[in-house]
Amino acid sequence: MSMLEIKNLHVNVAGKEILKGIDLSIAAGEVHAIMGPNGSGKSTLSYVLAGRGGYEVTEGSIRFKGKDLLEMSVDERAAAGVFLAFQYPLEIPGVTTMTFLKTALNAQRKARGEEELDAVRFLKLVREKAKPLNVTDDMLKRALNVGYSGGEKKRAEVLQMSLLEPSLAVLDETDSGLDIDALKTVAEGVNALRSPERSMIVITHYQRLLDYIVPDVVHVLSQGRIVKTGGKELALELEKSGYAEYGADAA
Amino acid sequence: MTENATRRFIEDYEARREVLPGVDGWLSRHREGAIRDFAGVGLPHRRLEEWKYTDLGRVLEKAGIEPAPLLEGAVLLPESRSAAVFETIDRHVLVFVNGRYRADLSKAARLPKGVEIHSLGDVLHEQWAKDLVERRFDEKRQAESIVDLNTALMSDGACLRVRKGVKLDKPLHLFFFSADAGASHCRNLVLLEDEAEATILETHLGEKASLADLVLDISLGVGARLNHIKLQDEAESSVHIATMRARLAAQARLSSFTLTLGCGTSRGQSFVLFAGEGAEANIDGAYALKGAQHLDQFCVIDHAVPSCNSHTLFKGVLDGESEGVFQGKVIVRPHAQKTDGRQMTHALLLSRDASMNAKPELEIYADDVQCAHGSTVGELSKDALFYLQSRGIPEAEARRLLVLAFLDEALDLAPHDEARESLRRLVSDWFAEADI
C-alpha cells in the first residue's frame, strides 16, 4: 500500500515558486533519499509535509495513508504519523525535554483516542528508548535542546522519533553538523526504526549519510523538480559527478 | 480630571478626620501635613515622568473614591482558586474586608514570644509605628504623593513586629478583599529587629469599582530576613495603588515577589533603601494581563551604602488590549562601592493590541560597581510553536507551554517553597482557562 502519494505539487514561498510539480510515491516500509543542490527545494518539501505556515500549495495534492494531508493541521499530521526531524532543532528554554516528550506523546495518544501514559509508565518507556541513543537522564532534565551540542540535538530528534513511532519520518539534513561518530550513532538509531510499516524520506546534500542509512530509492531534486530517480547506486554517481549536470550551480 | 479626584479625596478626609484612628495623638498632626502635601502636588498626572503611562485621575473617575461601606455582619469570602491559593500552608491569617480588619474571620493565635501582630489602630501610640509612617523615600515626592494620600486616610492595616533574634513560626497571611465599590485605605507596618525572620503572604481580591490603596512600610534590622509574596487577582474595573517602602540595615535581606493575575488599573511601587552594608534585596514579579487591564510597576532601589546586592526581574505576558509598564531605577550613591545591582524586565505580547512600556534606568555615581539593566518585549516564536506542534501538541497547548516556560524564570523567585508551588499551579490553571 502507498504510504505517501505526492502528485504534481507546486509550492510558493513568499510569492516565489519553489516546488514546480513534484510527483513522488512511497510505499510502506520504503526508505527514499532525496538529494539535490542547495536551493533545489529539499527543505521546502519537508516543511510542506509537516505543515509549516508560509508555504502555499498552489497546485497538486498530498495523500498520506489515503487521507488528504493538506487538509490537516500541523499537530493532526503528527498524530496521524508524520514526523519531521529538523535540520536545526529549536531550543525551547524553560521546557524540560522530559516534559516536552510527555506532553507530545500524550497529546498524540489523546488525538488517536488512546489512553494517556501516567508518569511511571512514561518514565520507563523514555529510559528504554533513550539508552541506545546515549541520551542521559541529565539531558532529559535539561531544557529542550538548550545547550545541547550538535550531536545531542540530533540524538534527541531520533529519540523523539523513536518514542512517537511515526509511520512516515522525514529526516531533513540529519547529517549536517555531525562528526563521523555522531553520524554513526544517529544512523544506527534511525536504522533501528526501519520496519515494514514505517517509511522514511532522507533528505541530504551529501552521499555520506546514505552509507549508513541505505535507501531503497534515490531521487535527485533540482530547481523544484525531481529530475532523476534510481537505486542506491545513483547516490554514488552523484558523489563523483556532482549536481552540475542537473543544471545547478556548483554548491 | 485629576483635580476632581484630588478634591474628592480631600473632601473625604475633611469629612472623616475626626473618626480616623489616632485622632488624639501625633498622627492627626501628621495626617494634616500629609493632606496638605497631597493637596499641593495633587493626584499624580501623566505630565509627571513617573506617571507618564498611567492616568490615575481618569480611572478614579469611575472607581469609588468615597470609602467602601463598613461591613460588620456575615461576609461571603470568594471561593476562587486565587482565594484558596495559600490555604494548604500552615499560617497565621488576618482578613481585611473593605479595608477593615475582621477578627471573626482571622486566625493568629499562639504567637511565639517576641512576635506582636496588631491592627493599625492598636500600635499608633508606639514609637516604632510613628518612625515607619513618617519616613520619606522619594526625594521629588512625585511617586509618594499617593503615600501622602494613604497617610491622610489610612483606616486600618496589619502591623507585625518581630523582636531581636526571633523567627515568626509560620507565614503571616494578609488577606484583603474589597467586597464593594468604594475605597479602602490600608497601612501595613512590618518591623523585624536585628536577626529576626518572617514570611508574609498577601492576597488581594477586589470586586468591581473598588479602590485598594495600600502602603506597606518595612524596616529590617541588622541581619533580619523578610520573605514577601503578594498575589493580586482583582476585577477589571478595580483600581489598586500600592507602595512598598523598605529600609534595610546591614546584612538584612528582603525578598519580595508579586504575582498579578487580575487587576483593573494597578500601580505597584517599590522603594528600597540600603542603609547598612552587605544587605540584599530581591524585588521580583510575574504577571499575566488580558482584556483592558493595566499594570504599572515602579521600582526604585537606592544603594546609599557600599556592598549591597539588588536584583529585580519582572516577567509578564499581555493579551487583548492590556498595557504593561515597568519603570525602574537603580541609584548607586558616590561612596556605594562594590554595589551589585541588576534590573531586568521581559514581556511577551500575545496580541497585536497589547502594549508594554519599559524604562529601566541606572544612576551610578560610584566607579567600582557591577550594574546591569535590560528590557525585552517580544512575541511567541513562530518557529518554536511550529516545532512543538510538529510533535503533535495542539496549538493552544503549545502556546500555554511556551508562556508558562517564559513566566517560570520569574516564578522561581517567589521566596517560599510551598507558596511558590501553589502559585505555579494557579498560573497553570489560569492559562488552561484563559483561552490565550
Describe this structure in words.
The complex is a heterodimer of chains A (251) and B (436). Chain A is α/β, with parallel strands linked by helices. Chain A has a single domain, classed as P-loop containing nucleotide triphosphate hydrolases (Rossmann fold, 3-Layer(aba) Sandwich), CATH 3.40.50. Chain A has helices at 42-50, 74-80, 97-111, 119-130, 137-141, 150-164, 180-192, 208-212, 233-241, and strands at residues 2-13, 16-27, 31-35, 55-64, 67-68, 82-85, 92-96, 143-144, 168-172, 199-204, 217-222, 225-230. Chain B is an alpha/beta fold. In chain B, 23% of the residues lie in helices and 39% in strands. Chain B is built from nine helices and 19 strands. The longest helix of chain B has 18 residues, at 417-434. Chain B is globular, with a radius of gyration of 21 Å. The two termini of chain B are 34 Å apart. The model of chain B has no long low-confidence stretch (mean pLDDT 93). The chains are: A alpha/beta (251), B alpha/beta (436). Chain A binds chain B through residues 50-53, 73-75, 77-79, 83-84, 86, 89-90, 92-95, 99-100, 103-105, 107-108, 111, 143, 160, 164, and chain B through 381-384, 386-395, 397-398, 401-402, 404-406, 408-409.
